[in-house]
Design goal:
By secondary structure, this protein is of the alpha+beta class. The chain is 26% helix and 25% strand. The protein has 25 helices and 47 strands. The strands form 15 sheets. A five-stranded antiparallel sheet has the order 23-22-13-12-30, with helices on one face. α8 packs antiparallel against α18. This is Mediator of RNA polymerase II transcription subunit 16. It holds the Pfam family Med16_C.
Length: 1035
């Protein structure tokens, strides 16, 4: 302000309407000690960060930036009216994980001050300064689709009751639900093992409910049951008259109560216990709220004394509270490794972080906030013994909550973020200088790497931290503490991956991992530990772990992570066949851990890391196995529905019989198209095996296979042409892929047998037994008819499929030995390296000699028809569902428009980039537009869209699918450029696969497991809905 105006006695309008002054006025007093004047202090050299600290001091325990388990990041823009959500995705062009374009949510609020995800990340609550609440529900089929389930525009505004604390109750239906996780990795006898623990969810068990507290101490709870609208129930905590609070913290306890801590503007902290009891299952009956005071005036603001420098002490006015939290008691009580209960658990802990405030007023000073002191108190359940005089009264001994102080912790800088990491054995603290450090929550000592450590429980033990940022505000760590998100001064989200504290590697950003180095070994163990924890949480993703690995370790080091992944999670019985009591190989397709491990193995592949041909083979092998597993679950659920017991007659009314509910047509479409893809894969495998035999018996018909003359995309790794190496050899020798192929063939055979389908190709004729007319229109009839059509189209019988993949039909045991660790190591090496081990290299030859050829072979028995196999040979893009573009060409196909050749201009106009770099479909060379490849829906295994439909040409049949290219899913028939640009598809953030965006929300008539399958890509990556124009590349 102009000094002349000050001398004239004019009003300082800027200072009068300063936001901080208004906040302090609303509090009714200062938030510091008596002599502290926050608004009269000059900001330091980082105004944005200082302003953030001021918000922490005045706006309560609310967050403006939060990261959910499904990978979604939500933050409130500076205008206070816009909430944006985004998530990470892998850009296969650059090989880097980037932030997806944010999507804005219309909050209809004036000034949002805080937000929070529920425990599964499926719902987002947003609160504004007047206590109004908006709730957004995440659509299950895409990570950037939201439904506005509660609009706070009609809430009663209360300007004096600004929210200062928010907590979602644990998402649990009943007390029988179990919560599981991996507590730590333990190294025993040279092998890392998991300490797998489980426990129960703390009551109250509410399906959808959250609580928030206002400045006057009013406790509010919004709850709903059975999808009905949110209802409000409130309670005034027994606070002193005219008390005003700055911060509130809440936490659930094993007794089913909520511990509530309130920080008063005077500096006192009050503790309450609120019980929430749902007395009825009725969706309209509100819960009963009761409150009990635990402790009043727990502590005042601590005095500041610097024993090293009296001048500093004189300069400090006092402390201001910036963070208040309650770290809950651990929910885990049972150790599966030792088969015993865990040692006594740490009780709940109240944590208050205070930053010092100095009165230095020159602009060159260090700012208004200085060092930090963290005060802690533990909540103990104490049972008091009554006087002997009252021993026979029959009354029970009272149990009270006792608050015990713990030693203080001092930091040299103010705290901007304090976050407890799952499962509660590490605390991440970010200070004003941008440094993030991990602490032990029980001792508040810094976690540091130890070369001799045999136990890993936190990423803080592995010598990594985050690059300090001088302009970062509103920091938040990812669920696994692998990526740090913050907003810049412009309000944009920035992501920071960790770095190593030492820089011994040649590349300062990437480290070459050496498993013989104890610190590197611990780092790998921490990655596996974080991944394992993600497997036990609903909706959880591990994209932050993948992005951290890609940004910190060299590509050559990935194989060490892959090897330890499988050796830590699995035992020989999970990978080696044998008797049922020694092997669990048949259970592998149903294991969620196996599925997640394969997805993690798949996600470690980065096409821009110059992978070797064997790494490409391992990537394609994993993709096919993931698709096989996805199809097994889909078709397996159908098979189970066919074996449901017939409903019993009602004895009181024998004429009535409840008919079983048929599967919906949309689900049956999904099943039949997956069956067609499975048979195309079988055709591809059998054709490759027969081609190997032809090279051996008629070598003069073939050019000598050579890596210099044949591209990798054609040999698929079988450079010698003898079946010892390559993708087909991997599929036939890796026990997981062979087991998946065998289980799928048995499912086909079981359905065909139930429908009495019998097909044989003896004497060059198609001999078949048709499906009974009584099955027409039934689920069994339709599925069996699809299997029958595929058998006739491809010249394969279901008996032939079982014989090809069942180990008992082969005299050679394929190099396996039950219970042998060497077999386990060979299996793991083949999966992660793409190189077939020597004991397995004769498998293809054995199949040809003992199973296919000869009078007793499949061809002699009429189980295979070579001519039909060749006629039904599928297109490679269909078998691999476009993933061969990633392995061969280095990136996913994307939409492209050739400006030189639009419709009507003599050319096709539209196409897709793709191909294998060897001049295959979709690649433009010498200015010529080559025919585009078909893009396939990863779920439905149907053409999504192709060049012919875009160019307004008649639809053509995509090879091997039996479907017209323009009549598939998603985009369907596009009739103009603008329709193409505005069309929407779902794209996977991890692998780039595409799927139909018009997916109906799965209802109760669909199999239960299908919901999770449709929510994620085949590779377990999240779907995002985007317009074609968003991913458009103009030539």
């Amino acid at each position: 302000m102009d000094p002349q105006m000050q001398q004239a006695g004019d009003i300082d309008v800027d200072n009068l309407f300063n936001e901080e002054n208004l906040n302090n006025a609303a509090l009714g007093g200062g938030i510091l000690s008596e002599n502290a004047i926050l608004h009269d202090t000059v900001f330091g050299s980082a105004p944005a960060q200082t302003e953030q600290l001021a918000e922490h001091a005045t706006h309560g325990s609310l967050s403006k930036l939060t990261w959910a388990r499904p990978g979604l990041i939500a933050h409130i823009r500076e205008d206070g009216t816009t909430v944006e959500t985004s998530l990470q995705r892998l850009d296969t062009k650059s090989g880097k994980w980037v932030n997806v374009k944010p999507r804005s949510l219309d909050t209809t609020l004036e000034d949002a001050v805080g937000l929070a995800w529920n425990t599964t990340g499926a719902e987002l609550a947003v609160l504004d300064r007047k206590g109004r609440v908006n709730v957004f529900n995440l659509f299950p089929t895409a990570a950037n689709r939201f439904a506005h389930t509660r609009d706070g525009a009609t809430d009663q505004a209360d300007e004096l009751n600004q929210p200062i604390g928010l907590l979602w109750l644990t998402l649990s239906r009943n007390s029988q639900d179990k919560k599981k996780t991996v507590l730590e990795n333990v190294k025993e006898n040279g092998k890392w093992k998991h300490e797998h623990v489980e426990g129960g969810y703390y009551p109250p068990h509410a399906l959808r409910a959250f609580c928030f507290i206002g400045r006057t101490g009013r406790f509010n709870m919004l709850w709903t049951k059975d999808g009905s609208a949110f209802k409000l129930v409130a309670l005034n905590l027994p606070t002193p008259d005219a008390a005003t609070y700055t911060h509130a913290a809440m936490s659930q306890t094993p007794e089913g109560r909520l511990l509530v801590a309130l920080h008063e503007a005077t500096g006192d902290i009050s503790i309450y216990a609120v019980s929430i009891v749902f007395t009825s299952n009725d969706a309209q009956t509100p819960p009963t709220l009761n409150v009990e005071a635990v402790d009043h005036k727990l502590s005042a603001v601590p005095p500041y004394i610097d024993t090293r420098n009296q001048a500093v002490t004189d300069m400090v006015d006092g402390y201001v509270l910036t963070h208040l939290d309650i770290w809950p008691e651990s929910e885990y009580s049972w150790d599966h490794l030792s088969k015993q209960h865990l040692s006594p658990k740490q009780p709940a802990t109240l944590v208050a972080a205070y930053s010092s405030c100095n009165n230095q007023r020159n602009a060159a000073g260090n700012g208004i906030f200085g060092s930090t002191v963290i005060k802690r108190w533990q909540f103990q359940q104490a049972q008091f013994q009554l006087h002997p005089r009252f021993g026979g009264s029959g009354s029970s001994e009272p149990v009270e909550t006792v608050v015990q102080p713990l030693p203080d912790t001092f930091l040299s800088a103010p705290i901007t973020n304090l976050q407890v990491m799952e499962p509660g054995n590490a605390v991440a603290i970010t200070t004003l200088d941008g440094t993030t450090t991990f602490y032990d929550p029980y001792t508040m000592t810094m976690i540091s790497p130890d070369p001799s450590q045999q136990i890993v429980s936190s990423v803080g033990q592995v010598n990594i931290d985050f690059m300090p940022s001088s302009n970062a505000t509103n920091q938040c760590l990812s669920p696994h503490a692998m990526v740090l998100a913050h907003t810049d001064p412009d309000g944009q989200i920035e992501l920071t991956t960790p770095r190593y504290r030492d820089y011994t590697s040649t590349n300062a950003n990437l480290r070459e991992l050496d498993p013989s180095n104890s610190l590197d070994e611990s780092l790998i163990a921490s990655y596996i530990l974080s991944f394992s924890r993600s497997c036990w949480h609903a909706n959880s993703t591990f994209d932050d772990i993948l992005s951290s690995i890609h940004a910190t370790v060299t590509p050559a080091s990935l194989i060490h992570i892959r090897r330890q992944l499988f050796t830590t999670l699995f035992q020989p019985k999970n990978l080696v066949p044998g008797p049922p009591n020694t092997s669990e190989l048949d259970k592998v397709p149903h294991s969620m851990i196996v599925y997640k491990a394969l997805a993690f193995h798949f996600g470690l592949f980065n096409p821009q890391n110059h992978p070797t041909k064997h790494e490409k083979l391992a990537h394609l092998w994993t993709w096919i196995v993931l698709n096989l597993r996805w199809s097994i679950v889909i078709i397996g659920d159908t098979y189970k529905s066919l074996h449901q017991p017939q409903p019993q007659q009602n004895p009181s009314n024998p004429q009535t019989r409840q008919q079983p509910q048929p599967l919906p047509p949309q689900f049956l479409d999904l099943v039949t198209h997956n069956i067609r893809w499975i048979f195309s894969l079988y055709n591809f495998i059998i054709q490759s095996i027969l081609l190997t035999g032809d090279r051996q018996t008629h070598p003069s018909f073939f050019n000598p296979p050579s890596t210099s003359t044949l591209p990798f995309s054609q040999t698929l790794g079988d450079d010698a042409g003898d079946g010892t190496q390559g993708l087909i050899a991997l599929l036939m020798n890796c026990n997981w892929s062979r087991s998946f192929l065998l289980i799928m063939s048995r499912l086909m055979k079981a359905i065909a047998t139930k429908a009495a389908v019998n097909i044989n190709f003896a004497n060059g004729k198609s001999n078949q037994v048709g499906i009974s007319s009584s099955l027409s229109g039934t689920t069994l009839g339709r599925v069996a008819h699809t299997i029958q059509q595929c058998c006739l189209q491809h010249g394969i019988t279901v008996n032939a499929l079982e014989a090809l993949f069942d180990q008992k039909f082969h005299p050679d045991k394929w190099g396996d030995e039950a219970g042998n660790n060497a077999t386990l190591e060979r299996q793991v090496d083949m999966m992660i390296s793409g190189y077939v081990s020597k004991p397995y290299q004769n498998t293809i030859r054995n199949i040809l000699d003992h199973c296919v050829n000869g009078a007793e072979g499949l061809r002699g028995k009429g189980e295979l028809d070579r001519l039909k196999l060749m006629e039904g040979m599928p297109e490679g893009g269909y078998v691999f569902l476009n993933m061969d573009d990633v392995a061969f060409g280095g990136y996913r196909p994307v939409f492209t428009i050739d400006e030189r050749s639009k419709p009507g201009g003599g050319g096709n106009g539209f196409g897709f980039e793709g191909g294998d770099g060897d001049g295959e479909d979709g690649v433009q060379k010498n200015g010529k537009v080559k025919p585009s490849r078909v893009l396939y829906d990863a779920h439905k295994k149907l053409p999504l869209c192709c060049l012919q439909s875009l160019a307004l040409n008649p639809p053509t049949v995509a090879p091997g699918t039996g479907q017209a290219s323009g009549m598939g899913t998603g985009l369907g028939r596009i009739t103009s450029t603008e329709e193409l640009l505005a069309a929407q598809v779902r794209r996977c953030v991890r692998c780039g696969s595409l799927s139909d965006s018009n997916v109906e929300v799965v209802n109760k008539s669909w199999p239960r497991q299908l919901l999770q399958l449709m929510n994620r890509c085949v590779c377990d990556g999240s779907w995002i809905v985007e317009e074609v124009r968003e991913g458009l590349h103009l030539d």
